[in-house]
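Quick question about two entries, pasted in order.
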Amino acid sequence: MSILIKNGEIVTASERYVADILCEGETITRIDKNITAPKSAEVIDAKGKFVFPGFIDPHVHIYLPFMGTFSKDDYITGSEAALVGGTTTLIEMCCPARKDDALEGFELWMKQAVGKSACDFSFHMGVSKFDDATEKQLREIVKRGISSFKIFLAYKGAFGVDDTELYRTLKLAKELGVIVTAHCENETLIAERQKELLAAGKTDPSQHHESRPPAVEAEGVHHLMTFAELTGAATYIVHLSCKEALDQAIAARQRGVRVNVETLIQYLTLDKTYAEKPKFEGAKYVMSPPLRDKRNQEILWNGLRDGLVQTVATDHCPFDFKTQKPMGKNDFTKIPNGIPSLEERINLLYTYGVKTGKIDLHTFVNAASTQVAKTFDLFPRKGTIQPGADADLVVFDPNYRGKISVKTQHMNLDYSAFEGWKIEGRPSVVTVRGQVAVRDGKFVGKHGHGKFLQRKPSHF
């Protein structure tokens, strides 16, 4: 099977030009002007449209037991939502609890995706404890094609590691060439502040932010950076939300620490006033780290533009507003955390980033695709448009105008955090390894087409 995409304006992290793209089988085989379509090839006219490399979300939760409940999406709904939004590859956080076996956890997460996902996928392997048995299993998991770990400096007793485990995880990662992704918040400060707020009768969703203000996140980043500096491990800060935390990462980078920074589309577009909405509406906007003061948005956009922030993810973690968020009706610490946006990331980043002049098209592609692929050992198979790369392509219509709504979303959720928001542009055709998966906002792909992407560690 072959696909010929004609007359589109190809945009990568570094180039922009008009040409045709021939895809044969699962890969891109030729890029040129005026390519004659092979027999039986499907021809897609992309005149007046952009053609981007398939986007990669480096931070999602599709399957997640958390806070006494389960995330709502599975790899059927999750991969459909991703693809409709232009994301062709997911990297999920595999998060076995501290009491669980690491290898069994990895195999459990694999079973959720294999044979179901319509897009390609990989995992960051969660390290929720570190002992001799776990170390042996982590080595085996890396041999099976995982090149990144995930650690939590929060959620002590559930997923979080202590300092000895943190040090040993980073040492192992350095030895194996694995990059360590990290949730950076100081767990002790959070726990103490939560107790104080609840004791004072402050229980509503807005108090979530007060329990983990910017200083708590900044301390978590500083803590990780100290350990990374002493071990030499490559690190990646997930969901960075504020200036105070970014300052700590930049300072560490200046003294030679190997650190990349991820922010989220939520932090670029929403602020903490959303979590302060009355009548428990704010629960829709509870996540960790929390939404911050609006002043942080400009800092994060500028960080993307200037290369201080490398990637934009979602931390997609869907919990229903009517049946799951109310677990914390009288206690904000029990609200399941997450602001789902897997489907909306690219449209929001384009509309409120590129169209407003905050970032250019190359930064857009780099932050949502190319840099992710490079950081997590997928480049140049993913993250670019060149012969030999996988035929993951997004034909993007910049002239489309629409609104986001729960009524039309593919995520398995009873609300949208961006209800009624206007978007300018959307994917009109999306391909995954040479197979058309989306046409004009409708999923037309095949579940099970998605492959587990084996990755070889490179961060020595």
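Here is the second entry:
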Amino acid sequence: MNNFRFLKLRVYQDAKSFHRKVIYYTKGFPNDFFHLKDQLRRAALSVVLNIAEGSGKRSDKDFNRYINNSLGSINESGACCDISHDENLLTNEVFNELISLAEHLKDSLGALSKKLKS
């Protein structure tokens, strides 16, 4: 019944959790920072979607290309969080939580990439 490979991946579940938190924490961004809110949300979603899309590819080499795209997006998310923090849109506590989750995702994606290469 459950034929989607990505649903079985812990990194996919973690990426969804990160995306949900980004949505929650960016709800209060003022309209002047819509561009930053939108970019952060899209980058976080891109992590999730690249994992899902890549998992459906026929080879691990192809899947790994999408994992590398996810790595780029999680780095972009981290940069958006840093800028949001600099603009006082995220508290220290929220910033540290999101950066910690992003670093965990980066490490998990890196480990998956390494596994797919072997």
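Reply: Helices lie at 10-26, 34-55, 60-86, 92-117. The CA atoms of residues 71 and 107 lie 9 Å apart. Hope that helps.
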